[in-house]
């Protein structure tokens, strides 16, 4: 396998693998068909995560007893870590399309398990979802990147720009799940004005998995109706991918790589971890999971449910979703103008600022507007991490997409898992996590800047040999 240093180009050119175009079959689909597949793929993820995203947002609130909700989410991402190693082999065996179909079905099973939440139902369903999540996301990344590269050849455009455009469109669709899912949550779980009376232990003072306020739990029938709607949304995702998404060969059959058998695909994920360029990105990948886990786990429980009631989680997270959608569209186009270093720096500054505010802020029931501001700002930062990390992998590791995306999801899932599990113990408070996450973000950015310096230095050394 070629190293990532051999895949970089000079600073003024898109960082695309030099041999990227050797055997790409640009005649597979027409441009319209590429765009059709992108829309179907985007809608599949929209319906799938309209269900899962909303469940994730309220899991720490509706199943707070004994930390069941947070434990469920932690197991999802612990299982995802293990499945990340198997994802390339799964995609090679089933193909990208059918991997997406089977994995979205597993997400539906998790929705069904929430009808009867207990350790006996949620824990096995969480394991199943976790083992399907990495193949789903790696298949999506592989399918989207390959389609974008093919389209770039057809229309004679720069592959990096088309990859960024495709990622911007998909994540714009994807992030609207925060809008539709949370509208459902708010509408069904409306508590008719019932609000917590004691909020002295909310915000950064909140500790452990329990909700530290006198908040009334949602009506059981309302919860059942909500999970029924989520299950229906998940089945729509399965049918869309099964019936309307065109089947493509895996990326390893279209690009000149030596991934070989399923066993070698498994080991290629492990081997790529030792690539120094990918090693420098591991803290960034983990932070992209940590920041998402914080907003859907700690923020929704300790700042929203604790001060406003669980029904307000949906409303506040709509602000997060709308901001994320608009920012995804903007960042998908802005990278060609500003460069990705500016965007990564902007995302880091936004999240550091918001975490500082959450550390200093003492939330009260009457201060609900600040929740919307924080959620919207967090959506801007999250959109940057999600779109730019995916684009960065597609561009820098274009000849080994599946192992690279597997590593991304593995380390992102590690961030999710650590964040969710660390929120369960009573001694761990939100202010502890805010300090830890901020410190990790600073380390992540230092290593990211080292990554950019390394690939640009190596690219500049290659130029004289080519001229």
UniProtKB/TrEMBL annotation:
Its main location: membrane. InterPro entries: Ion_channel_UNC-93, MFS_trans_sf, UNC-93_regulatory. Belongs to the unc-93 family. It holds the Pfam family UNC-93. GO terms for cellular component: membrane. It is a multi-pass membrane protein. It comes from the Eukaryota. This is Protein unc-93-like A. The chain crosses the membrane at residues 38-55, 67-87, 119-138, 225-245, 278-297, 309-329, 341-361, 430-451. It is found in: Membrane. The keyword Electron transport does not apply. Keywords: Membrane, Transmembrane, Transmembrane helix.
């Amino acid at each position: 396998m070629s190293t990532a240093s051999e895949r970089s180009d000079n600073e003024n050119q898109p960082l695309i693998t030099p041999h990227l175009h050797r055997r790409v079959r640009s005649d597979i689909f027409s441009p319209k068909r590429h765009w059709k597949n992108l829309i179907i793929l985007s809608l599949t993820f929209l319906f799938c995560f309209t269900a899962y995203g909303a469940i994730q947002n309220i899991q720490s609130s509706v199943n707070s007893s004994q930390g069941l909700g947070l434990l469920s989410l932690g197991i999802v991402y612990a299982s995802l870590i293990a499945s990340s190693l198997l994802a390339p082999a799964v995609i090679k065996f089933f193909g990208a399309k059918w991997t997406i179909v089977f994995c979205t079905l597993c997400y539906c099973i998790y929705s069904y398990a929430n009808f009867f939440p207990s350790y006996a139902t949620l824990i096995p369903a969480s394991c199943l979802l976790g083992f399907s999540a990495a193949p789903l996301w790696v298949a999506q990344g592989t399918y989207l990147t390959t389609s974008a590269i093919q389209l770039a050849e057809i229309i004679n455009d720069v592959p990096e720009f088309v990859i960024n455009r495709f990622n911007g469109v998909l994540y714009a669709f994807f992030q609207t799940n925060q809008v539709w899912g949370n509208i459902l949550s708010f509408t069904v779980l409306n508590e008719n004005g019932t609000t917590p009376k004691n909020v002295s232990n909310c915000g950064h003072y909140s500790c452990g998995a329990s909700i530290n306020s006198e908040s009334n739990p949602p009506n059981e029938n309302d919860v059942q109706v909500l999970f029924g709607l989520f299950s229906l949304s998940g089945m729509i995702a399965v049918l869309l991918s099964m019936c309307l998404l065109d089947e493509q060969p895996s990326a390893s059959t279209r690009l000149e790589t030596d991934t070989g058998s399923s066993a070698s695909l498994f080991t290629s994920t492990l081997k790529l971890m030792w690539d120094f360029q990918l090693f420098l990105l591991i803290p960034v990948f983990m932070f992209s999971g940590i920041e998402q886990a914080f907003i859907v786990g700690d923020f929704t429980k300790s700042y929203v449910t604790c001060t406003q009631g669980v029904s307000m989680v949906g409303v506040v997270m709509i602000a997060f979703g709308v901001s994320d959608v608009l920012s995804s569209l903007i960042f998908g186009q802005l990278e060609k103008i500003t460069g990705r270093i500016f965007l990564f720096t902007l995302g880091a500054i936004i999240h550091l600022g918001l975490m500082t505010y959450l550390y200093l802020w003492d939330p009260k029931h009457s201060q609900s507007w600040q929740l919307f501001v924080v959620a919207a700002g967090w959506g801007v930062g999250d959109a940057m991490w999600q779109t730019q990390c995916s684009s960065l992998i597609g561009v820098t590791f274009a000849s080994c997409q599946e192992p690279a995306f597997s590593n991304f999801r593995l380390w992102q899932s590690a961030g999710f898992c650590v964040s969710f599990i660390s929120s369960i113990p009573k001694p761990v408070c939100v202010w502890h996590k805010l300090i830890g996450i901020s410190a990790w973000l600073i380390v992540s950015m230092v290593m990211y800047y080292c990554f950019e310096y390394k690939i640009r230095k190596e690219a500049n050394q290659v130029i004289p040999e080519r001229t």
